[in-house]
Structure formats: C-alpha cells, structure tokens
Amino acid sequence: SFVAVEIPAGIQSALARSIAPLQTVLPKPLIRWVAPENIHLTLKFLGEVSPANLERLAEALKAEAMAHKAFTMSVGGLGAFPTPHHARILWIGLEAPSALMALLRAVEAVAARLGYASEDRPFSPHLTIGRVGQFVSGTDLQRIRNALEGTIVGTLGTVSVDSVHIFKSDLQPGGSVYTRLYTLPLKST
C-alpha cells in the first residue's frame, strides 16, 4: 500500500505523448515503462498493511489532510535517478509549492506515529515514468543517457491537489494494478 496524489487523465495523456519518442528508442525490456494511468506522486510507501491498520491510517490521515489547504503543482522536465549516467529510474519533474512539503511531513508524521518507518532519502517530487531493466550493460546506460539528453519535456500543465489517496498495489503478470482504497480531502481554498 502507499499514500499518493493522483495525476489527472489530461496530464497522464500529455505525459504519454511526451515520452512516446523515448519509448521508441528505449523499448522493453531495457526500460519497464509505467502505464500512464498508473503514474502518480507517491508521498509514502507503506508496504504490506492489514485492513485494520489501513483503516486506522486512513482515519489519522483524514484529520491531518483537512488541516492542509489544496494547492497546485506544475508538471514538466525529464530526468533520472540517481543520475542520467547511472539511470535506474526515469522521471518527469514537479514544481511544487511549500504546501507539498508540509503535506509530506504531515503524512510521514502520521505514519511514524502508527509505527511505519520514516523515509531516509530526501524527498524529490517526481513522477516515475520508467524503471531501467535489471541487467543493463554500459552500452545500454550510454544509450539511455543519450536518449534523455536528446529529449526535452517542457511544462505539461498543472495538477490541482485537493486530496490524497491510499492505494493498494497488486502485482499482476502485465504489471502493477493500483486500487484506490481511501480518498482524504484537503481543506478547500
């Protein structure tokens, strides 16, 4: 399970159009591309969670979410983690206001109170669009870097964040299937 912000269908379509050229030059299995409908902003990965614990988490997050005002964030830019030279994750960037960081800290605090481990890596707002295959050569990494350097993804639009969601993830032969379990609205502006 995980806590995330959904990305609207219009932005998902814009993402799909933007990365289509990359998908042509970096096909599977070199890159495992994320289906556009599965692209989201993860705020907290929870792992395996019992239904009872999910209910407790949802109740605690519901109160916290209502303490945060809705906000918008801009989507655009292309990059890779940890670096384009050693890409493992391909992403589209997010320009988010301080409200996102405040919401993230609140989600982390609620999760920590309920016994979930805190994230030790710094938060870098992004939308994962692809994962580099497990067994890539130095030539493959160079190919990925060249493709990233030759692709410009401008601003794709803005996302109005007025709620966060708790999802469950089921791994299927065709990839992960995400099911929204809870919607937790933010305070209206």
Describe the structure.
It is a single chain. This protein has 189 residues and is of the alpha+beta class. The protein contains four helices and nine strands; from the N terminus they run βαββαββαβαβββ. A five-stranded antiparallel sheet has the order 2-6-5-4-7, covered by helices on one side. Strands 3-1-8-9 form a four-stranded antiparallel sheet. Helix 2 runs antiparallel to helix 3.
Q: Can you summarize this structure?
A:
The chain is an alpha+beta fold. Helix content is 32%, strand content 35%.
Strand content: 35-45%
Oligomer: single chain
Strand order of the largest sheet: 2-6-5-4-7
- Average residue-wise pLDDT: 94
Report Rg: 17 Å
The main β sheet shows up as:
5 strands, antiparallel
Distance between the termini: 29 Å
Helix/strand-derived category reads: alpha+beta
Number of strands: 9
Count of alpha and pi helical runs: 4
Give the overall shape, derived from the CA principal axes.
Answer: globular
Query: Which regions contain 5 or more consecutive residues with pLDDT less than 50?
Result: none
Q: What is the helix fraction of residues, given as a range?
A: 25-40%
The ordered H/E elements are: EHEEHEEHEHEEE
